[in-house]
Amino acid sequence: MFDEVMREDKLSEECGVIGVYAPGKDVAHITYFGLYALQHRGQESAGIAVANDGKINLYKGMGLVADVFNEDVLKDLDGFAAIGHVRYSTTGSSEIVNAQPLVFRHKSGMLGLAHNGNITNVSVLRDMLYSHGAIFQSTTDSEVLVNLIAHHSRRDIESGIKKAMIDIEGAYSLTILTTDALYAVRDPYGFRPLCIGKMDDGWVIASESCALDTIGAKLVRDVEPGEIIRIDESGLVSIAPSENAKRRAFCVFEYIYFARPDSIIDGFHVNQVRREMGRQLAREFKVDADIVIPVPDSGTAAARGYAQQSGIPFEEGLMKNRYIGRTFIQPNQKMRDLAVRLKLNPMREVLAGKRVIMVDDSLVRGTTSKKIVQMLRDVGVKEVYLCLSSPPVVGSCYYGIDTSNRKELIAATKSSVEEICKEVGADKLYYLSLKGLLNVFGKSSKDFCSACFDRKYPIPVYDVNKFSLE
Amino acid sequence: MFDEVMREDKLSEECGVIGVYAPGKDVAHITYFGLYALQHRGQESAGIAVANDGKINLYKGMGLVADVFNEDVLKDLDGFAAIGHVRYSTTGSSEIVNAQPLVFRHKSGMLGLAHNGNITNVSVLRDMLYSHGAIFQSTTDSEVLVNLIAHHSRRDIESGIKKAMIDIEGAYSLTILTTDALYAVRDPYGFRPLCIGKMDDGWVIASESCALDTIGAKLVRDVEPGEIIRIDESGLVSIAPSENAKRRAFCVFEYIYFARPDSIIDGFHVNQVRREMGRQLAREFKVDADIVIPVPDSGTAAARGYAQQSGIPFEEGLMKNRYIGRTFIQPNQKMRDLAVRLKLNPMREVLAGKRVIMVDDSLVRGTTSKKIVQMLRDVGVKEVYLCLSSPPVVGSCYYGIDTSNRKELIAATKSSVEEICKEVGADKLYYLSLKGLLNVFGKSSKDFCSACFDRKYPIPVYDVNKFSLE
Amino acid sequence: MFDEVMREDKLSEECGVIGVYAPGKDVAHITYFGLYALQHRGQESAGIAVANDGKINLYKGMGLVADVFNEDVLKDLDGFAAIGHVRYSTTGSSEIVNAQPLVFRHKSGMLGLAHNGNITNVSVLRDMLYSHGAIFQSTTDSEVLVNLIAHHSRRDIESGIKKAMIDIEGAYSLTILTTDALYAVRDPYGFRPLCIGKMDDGWVIASESCALDTIGAKLVRDVEPGEIIRIDESGLVSIAPSENAKRRAFCVFEYIYFARPDSIIDGFHVNQVRREMGRQLAREFKVDADIVIPVPDSGTAAARGYAQQSGIPFEEGLMKNRYIGRTFIQPNQKMRDLAVRLKLNPMREVLAGKRVIMVDDSLVRGTTSKKIVQMLRDVGVKEVYLCLSSPPVVGSCYYGIDTSNRKELIAATKSSVEEICKEVGADKLYYLSLKGLLNVFGKSSKDFCSACFDRKYPIPVYDVNKFSLE
Amino acid sequence: MFDEVMREDKLSEECGVIGVYAPGKDVAHITYFGLYALQHRGQESAGIAVANDGKINLYKGMGLVADVFNEDVLKDLDGFAAIGHVRYSTTGSSEIVNAQPLVFRHKSGMLGLAHNGNITNVSVLRDMLYSHGAIFQSTTDSEVLVNLIAHHSRRDIESGIKKAMIDIEGAYSLTILTTDALYAVRDPYGFRPLCIGKMDDGWVIASESCALDTIGAKLVRDVEPGEIIRIDESGLVSIAPSENAKRRAFCVFEYIYFARPDSIIDGFHVNQVRREMGRQLAREFKVDADIVIPVPDSGTAAARGYAQQSGIPFEEGLMKNRYIGRTFIQPNQKMRDLAVRLKLNPMREVLAGKRVIMVDDSLVRGTTSKKIVQMLRDVGVKEVYLCLSSPPVVGSCYYGIDTSNRKELIAATKSSVEEICKEVGADKLYYLSLKGLLNVFGKSSKDFCSACFDRKYPIPVYDVNKFSLE
Asked: Is A15 a catalytic residue?
């Protein structure tokens, strides 16, 4: 259950990016609507940069897309192309200096960049740039990226991007804006998603296809791992990748939790994948029960798949308060149990006297699940079987989903599934098998990164401490 | 479909009220959590008043509960009892002067009041009070209520409430706070809900039982129509109603749309009622189709009931963006169609080539439904059958749900269901019958007000123009 | 020295009022500029009410006039007449509920009121109104005033004002706005100032004539004690006072400190009065010194008068930081001495080696003066003679200048002038004599209230505790 | 008259800088108080950077010092040394990205910089840095400065500063903070002021000595033109200047208008210099008049000098509203004349029937003076002689006081003093002679830059258009 209230426990550095090329149309509004659709990928800051008349104008701020922008701001962002960014961070350093897009002036003009992912050799790159006299205002890997591209762009920006890709290791899906063109770049492993959409008289690049749907654009295809796309007045062209990946490494966690269910990523419908994970759960874990309920919203699709496969009726046993904001006053110790009740309310008339299969996508610290199990028992549930549509998280992610607080992960601190089950108070606990998970993707299963479950890292991470940028 | 984006079209003056009596406990925090659970009843303003040491302290502001209050404010609101209020209004006059609770000093002390409902003879009462020299700072019926109670309270507050109830006509569920006690009052018809909960060492009064669940209180019973409840150091007592209603007139619209699905109101589970409405829809309207989909979230329960009764599979065909706030920038005319896409995204892989029964709770202006129908066709839906779990709205409500903009109601402007169907572009359109709707409540069906569907007003409304308070 | 930084020590409940009648002109802007000129009379809140088309619209907020209003707000305040108010309060209860103007609906329409002064029999009046069922939302005497006028206005508003004046005891200068006319009212003693100005095609009423100058209006005369002025489409008329005062009691403290130096009040130029006080000081206190310096800005005029009379050169020995706002971060204990230095800087080249006469208007707690004296000694001043252009404050004011914290007044806690002199560290200390102060006004001297210096209260104050409204 | 209301007409890019080295003391508070004293040098943005424990923390924001900082912010800024900055700009580009101090990470650590002045060869420097791959986020010359120092600091920061000074042309007074030390740098001409103060256990560097007074530090001496000062745990040392100026070029406009009167700059008391300018005016321009009045506050000191020298009595004929903020609502055209009245009120009793010498420091567009002259005539002044304590401004300043809008300068658009006199409506108009102005400084007069009066630029400005940074 990686839901809003839980977010502060684990995830960070997720982002969403977008790029719009549509001369004559209202690119700032289109970008705004696209960011709205990508809001789930980052709620801390939002920004839009627009190219017009040889200049790039930028507006960014802390908070949700709807809070940062208003009609006056958007009207001022006139132009033929735009890039946008939403950012999330768990760290205390939620500062405007870290918000994106980054816009800067270099030798031959202006350039804007929006980045989703994590550069793994950032320390090496930063030291190299330092030795050439570079300075940095923030601690983000994105500012290093920007300096690296500028460093290599003394001839032109395209050769700069190509050369930078030779230096960079890690995960990156980028939209880049110049005063002439819009670029889209995806790292050679394809860790983070990035897709191409076609509008009447224009193009859209976005982290997820749900943004295309909102804008009214049609999904054309994904940006290929290692590919560079350029869009300008002569249309969209693919520039040959500077390097070919040895393997693909699509992030499996995007499908389990992070992406929106109505997106199609690298050819797979997220919602269908989730439902199939639930079906696979039902094949692996057979138990006699009365109803299947999800932990909304993160467990809904998998629960539906479980019910479908098992024939056990699906019910909405937990009602979610749709007005829970991202932030609410932390109650004092005495009342902390109320926090979960604020968000979820068990439906006694549905649950009382039943044996219940409760499906969620994953288990983080386990404290929320423990409270939910207790709430179920309080309304008279007889048996609680907790099923998770992913294996235990045992490894940190260095490619854009921050799971660095491993000490807090219940799967890393308890020695067995039985112990976890006991801790959360369930009668039974079942994790989807890694094999079962990957089989959902058929013969493509080898194209996915599942390092957080099996510690098989596609890119070696020599020095984890280097990630501590501050 | 009376959902957030749609709110500005129709509903107004809905409110949620709460009262907490719990000496020694943190009543402000408890009230805050309760208001959080009632947030769906009003998002324009929020307020809490707390009684302590012979005084009543008040804090209120514009916006959501989470925005109005912070930890420092709640800490300052120390006391043995509290009342709270959330308010919604469509009118431009969203001013702090209209926010509640109202707190005032009268002859024998201080008094706070939170009101949900509409007084129908407010002009008569105001004129009567004017003739005694009263003055008013706002145009709300609640300020009239407060003056009327003060006018009658020269002996004591309880006799003041009783006398006021003889004068007042209309809908009112009240929580009232004095420096000694907490009162709960419900009008003799019981238009608006109000229920009683028990905590360890304390009592809670709330508009809906979902607030009790959040707080961890147990639902004891509803406040009876015409009843006055007093809670003080000697416990909870029911003071005999000053007047008995000729009939009960529970608002049926609370069950159709307004209340939270996890509430139990006057003995009925809201979610079960909604699902039963869907089942009744299926009994009344039989059609050959491939799937049943809801317009989330307002149509979800009824859609599930329809699917269950008809045997046609339930699917989530429209994915909702969970980050849509109440307000977002209105796009310019050219892009207005995007507004619905921001909120709902049709799932092509679920819908393409299907005959679809789409269930919603009601139809307001029809413009949103029209756009959704078009979106369904765009992804390849073959047939769209739009089913509504309520009859056409043909009458204004004068008891707390503002449907005064009748000219905008599609059911009031089109001469037939066929015409409406054509307007929204569906292949078929079906409204639940009034008889079918009321049958859901069994033999209690005569206890409900359905004036918005049949114009049978429990309390005569002599002069509608008097409602125009400004 | 009653200056900004010091304000929090002593003064409260000062206010400034204005009224503008000018059909066809931009009354909101005119009122705004007038309030700007009266800003020194109150910095806590500001408000403007405008009459138009049978209604009165109100806008008020916490803070300075320039912070509360912007162009959009003023544009919305269209009308033929307006009243405005600025308010200051030392109490913690600086809440919007206490801000003025007060606007209310009564039997025959709407009414707005702005009040400067203090009602001394407010408890008696409130009890009387309570017994008629009145309720109050604030603890201000102004709300009592408003209810009293409404109570008496069942026939018409003018007879209501007249009857209310029979009941009310205390100090009040009022501007009152109806949907037809603008009224100006001054209490029978004339404690607080109020004057009449003529514009092209319009009239202005204001606390001080400096507001007329700013607007470009010409001072016609003062509103007479006990007078009621009505301005409407038939022009300005004086309604006979309902009661004649036994004596006049103009506040002498307005001239000493509170009013702006460029105002003319009840026939006296404030700046000239202050300079004459300085001359009288020089006649009373002769000392051999090198220079005369003021404590800016409150002591400047008197210092100039002293220099002129004595022939000792005037110098600016203390330079004032013009950017000191009303609020600045209170330094921690260790650095508290810096607070005075932030505001005033002694000019070593002017002061070193000199015997200095330092003139201020009055002495409150003495702590600031003590620090200034020390600063003078630090830059090498040989002798410091502190002269005050008013007698010691020994009595509280119940008529609109709050001096209730008598325990903090150095003149009330020290037994002799010598002791005070020792406390502040001066070589000599001299207070202007009361006789000398009043002689400045010539044969009008008996028309002034000097109760804060001699405890001769024009209106008996039976029960001081009744002033504690909360 | 270069006063607040007038500011938007002419001046820009003025700044104030400060540096504090005081281990164990509350450096953030000390810096805050110092910035408060320098507030007149910039009101657009304010910032403080603090070095502590190998890091530099920064806080900056738009607005006045008192608005940007609060106690919580200052508490978080713990450290052994700090730098601070206030900035003013007339351009529309008042953005946070331009606020200072600038803090950045370079090869060997972190560095903070606060800059007052203007670099004249910024284009050349930026191009040089571009060719090394540098990028810029703002258009300020200060960011170029920072990159240049970093570029040269690959060995160490001190050699970096020295090398950068060889490259840089123009005006700069800097405070620089590293994680070990505080540096002060002044350009070889000494255009902008910078002085050194001693506290108990600490040192202060500030633009003006008034900041030292506020903090309680003693003025030691000015930083010499071309000098670099280092302060660290081994105390204060002067590092030999990397280049010696051919001549000094202290800005004479600091003395005429910009600096605070209680500052001592390069050995001259500002207030005494201003008074002497007034005396010189009286020697040059003899006229028969009744009184001398200043335009407060900018003309006060010179008016006093004029009165002293001429023997004509000094009077305060214009009363200034002390509550005029920097911003107020611009009245519509019809009411624009009120703007001056808001700020200044002529004292009829002082002025009527008199021949008046009105002294101001300088004349910008002349529109305000024209209104003041008219106001004087309206209250009955017989003759108005306008005297200015500086020569006509005929040249732009490229060294830190922006007078680029020459087209608006009345002295640049009118062909003779007579024409200007006629335009402002005075009976006579007199400008102080340049010779008379410079003679005030005695034999040091050749050490001053007076390019704005005589176009003799100490540093050649090859290409003025290069100043257009955006």
From this structure: yes
> What domains are defined for chain B?
4-246 (3.60.20.10), 270-442 (3.40.50.2020)
Residue C178's φ and ψ, nearest 5 degrees, are -115, 180
Name the residue among C260, C300, C329 with its Cβ closest to that of D74.
C329
Placement of tokens 């009003």 in the chain = B42
Task: Count Cβ atoms below 10 Å from residue A56 Cβ, excluding itself.
Answer: 24
Give the minimum alpha-carbon distance from B203 to chain C in angstroms, rounded to a whole number. 28
Cβ partners under 8 Å of residue A116, min gap 6: A14, A15, A16, A17, A41, A172, A173, A174, A192, A194, A207, A400
Which residue of chain A comes nearest to B324, CA vs CA?
A36
Q: Among partner residues D102, D107, D136, which is closest to A104 by beta-carbon distance?
A: D136
Q: Per the CB < 8 Å rule, is C66 touching D325?
A: yes
Which residues 6+ apart lie within 8 Å of B127 measured at CB?
Answer: none
Q: Please report, in tens digits, the pLDDT of each residue of chain A (470 residues total).
A: 333 333 222 333 689 999 999 999 999 999 999 999 999 998 889 999 999 999 999 999 988 898 899 888 999 999 999 999 999 764 435 577 788 999 999 988 899 999 999 999 999 999 999 988 899 988 889 999 999 999 998 888 999 999 999 999 999 999 999 999 999 999 999 999 999 999 998 999 999 999 999 999 999 999 999 999 999 999 999 986 655 666 899 999 999 999 999 999 999 999 999 999 999 999 999 999 999 999 998 899 999 999 999 999 999 999 998 776 544 455 555 556 667 888 899 999 999 999 999 999 998 778 889 999 999 999 999 999 999 999 998 888 888 876 655 556 777 778 899 999 999 999 999 999 999 999 999 999 999 999 999 989 999 876 444 343 33
Query: How close A161 comes to chain D (CA, Å)?
Result: 14
Helix and strand numbers, DSSP H then E, in chain D: 18, 23
Q: Which residue of D has its CA nearest to A145?
A: D135
CA dihedral sign, ordered C206, C210, C214, C218: positive
Q: For residues B204 and B215, is the Cβ–Cβ distance under 8 A?
A: yes
Helix (H, G, I), strand (E, B) or coil at C59: strand
To which residue do tokens 């508490």 refer?
Answer: D75
Cα A444–Cα A447–Cα A449 angle in degrees, nearest 5: 130
The catalytic site residues of C sit at 15
Task: Give Cβ neighbours of residue A253 (< 8 Å, ≥ 6 apart).
Answer: A390, A397, A401, A452
H or E stretch covering B57: strand B55-62
Cβ atoms C396, C412 nearer than 8 A: no
DSSP readout, B83-99? EEEEE---SS---GGG-
At D402-449, the pLDDT tens digits run 665 555 677 777 889 999 999 999 999 999 999 999 999 999 999 999
Separation between Cα atoms, residue D361 and residue B104, nearest integer Å: 58
3-state secondary structure of B344: strand
Residue B355, chain C, CB below 8 Å: the answer is no
CB A320 within 8 A of CB A372: no
On whether any CB of chain D is under 8 Å from the CB of C63, the answer is no
What does DSSP assign to residue A23? T
Is residue B256 within 8 Å of residue B390, measured between CB atoms?
A: yes
A271/B74 touch (CB, cutoff 8 Å), yes or no:
no
B66/B57 Cα distance (integer angstroms): 19
- D345 contacts chain C (CB < 8 A): yes
Q: How far is CA D253 from its chain centroid?
A: 8
- Please name the residue that has the structure tokens 């740098």: D185
> Cα torsion for A302, A308, A310, A312, to the nearest 10°?
100
> Chain B neighbours among A 20-59 (CB < 8 Å)?
26, 29-30, 32-33, 36-37, 39-40, 43
Alpha carbon distance D207, D192 (integer Å): 8
